[in-house]
Amino acid sequence: GEGEVNGDGIPEAKGEAISEVKGDDTPATAKSDSKGPGSHSVISVPLRILPVGDSITEGKERNGNNGWRLPLRNHLVQQGRSVDFIGTKETGDDNPDNQHEGWGGQAMVVIQEKIMANNILTQHPNLVLLGAGTNDCNEGFGLPPTEPHESEIVRLENLMDAILCENPDAALIVAQITDNLTDLKDTERVRKFNSQIPGLVEKKRKQGFRVGIVDMFNAVGYNLDDSGIHPSEKGYNAMAAAWFEAIKLLPEEWIQPAREPGSKAPAFWSQQETLACGALKGWDRDYFVTNKSQSAWMYPPKEDMNQGLFGGLLANPSFLRTFNQPDTALQGQIVSTYTLGCIFGAILSLFTGDRFGRRKNVVLGCGFIFIGGILQATAPANISPSFRMITGRIIAGFGIGVNATTIPMWQAETSRPHLRGRLVAFELTCPVGGFVLTNWINFGFTYLPDNEVSWRFPLGLQSLLALGTAGIVPFQVKSPRWLCLKGKEGEAKGAIARLYAKPVEDDEVYESLELMREATEREKEEGQVGWREALRNERQQTLRRILLGMRANVMQQMVGVNVVAYYLPVVLERSFGFSTRMSLILSACDSMQWMFWGAVAMWAMERFGRKKLMLFGAAGQSLCFAMAAIGLGVGSKAMNGVAVVFIFVYYFFLRPLVHGYQIPVPFGDQLESSSEHWRRDGDDDELGLR
To answer: Which family, according to the similarity comment (predicted)?
Structure first.
């Protein structure tokens, strides 16, 4: 072959090895008898080789149960190289060096679990030969049946990341796998998988890793045994020759002396992770990295904004006229359908939270908010009630339910424990910015009382903010806990380093990864846990933990917050006799001091603790509403003033002691009190009830 590429993107030339990348980052191919730039006939550094793969790596029934490993060792020894194959499995006759990690009949996700569990990676090979994916492309043979799985190429990347996470200074050669002649669909899957591997190799090279590729598909060709999957003896010998040529082509600087078993990885990481660590120090660093958009940017299109928006629209003459002056019962229905959507959105997160991850879930929620906002802003006039308006409210609420259950958890998973309370408090203060914004927008549009834009524009604004939120999500750090759960430990380690603004080899980063790894391993060992366990109150007190979070949020919504948030302009106008414009001014000013008191939460929550603040806040709110009721009951001008004052004072207790503390307390308490497995589901449950 002359190195041509067929229609499937697979090199035609047999025995090609790709181990270099040109200056333009394009993988360079070299035929088996060539010596390209940087290639060497003899490598002086002793090789500690870790073969990783499936039954083809194991090599049963061919070459004395050695497969390609013994012929490759003979090639290397004949070249004068010192060779030591390592692994926890020993297979092969007449082979003094028969260790390997060839797991027959297993898919890549299981192979990854095996090599992580047996700690072979801590033996620190300086060369890893990875050939896996045959079972994955054989209709998912060997995959665990109880969980959804990523695509084959993503599984390969996860396996590579696990290896490189522990051994970032090692050279890794990944193989394009041999053909599968058992079924045409399997052959197509193999070809598609192989065509994606060069791009993955290029990606890892750009990240700074020493990754090469060898084409076993063409090296072996049709030299397969009767199974149509495993190579014949001739095929295994061809594989050995291809591995040998790929090793010969490695730049000399790629092969470093093997580190002592059990030692930590050196300071070696991608430029992206190094730059992301930055130079921020101390608490300000954590505050900046974990909150710069997960709170300030992601939360404007949340329920606080909607509360401020509809509180003003219920007093907007154009809005009321458009929908034929709906009575109070119908107004309540329009408002509450939004909350109904939030409930369904929280339930949806039960199924999408861990499956899609935090970032995709937030984008999904923003999509619902965008669609819902457009439907509300374009609702037709003179229809009471408007089907489009109510549908838009439900859909927007759906998105809010998804985001309201995802973002606080994401925040908690990317915060250090000693900062989690104040950071969650800060995150939940940011939505009040949307509340303040919409209150002042409603006031500004009182100067256009007869124009429908006075209510259509504010309703459409949430769609614009949802687009902004979705647009910035890809730039945020993934949840390390979710990455560990999906087996992406290499990415998890990088995410922790970015969040802590420390090098990837730092002890704190390493310890945090180990804790997450242990937690997720325990979670996997527990297996799929059904709702029946949630209804039991056994050793882990699962039911009690979930009910604690639910109870706090149910009571938080029963303290009268929605009367003040949704209906304050209406209450001030109808019960206190203020004009529409003055009611909106007072509501806007009230929202500003709500945000101010929320900022106090970042300091007080960790200082005084959750329980004391919840009790003090609830007592203060009771006092405020009691005084407001007395003032309205007396009805004099002076007592009306007292009632208004206590409505304003109510926010002192509501924001710092309920929305500042009781919302972070239910949010944070649910996240901290739930077991690892039930953290997401418990959070969804209590948000749904709230």
So the answer is: Belongs to the major facilitator superfamily. Sugar transporter (TC 2.A.1.1) family.
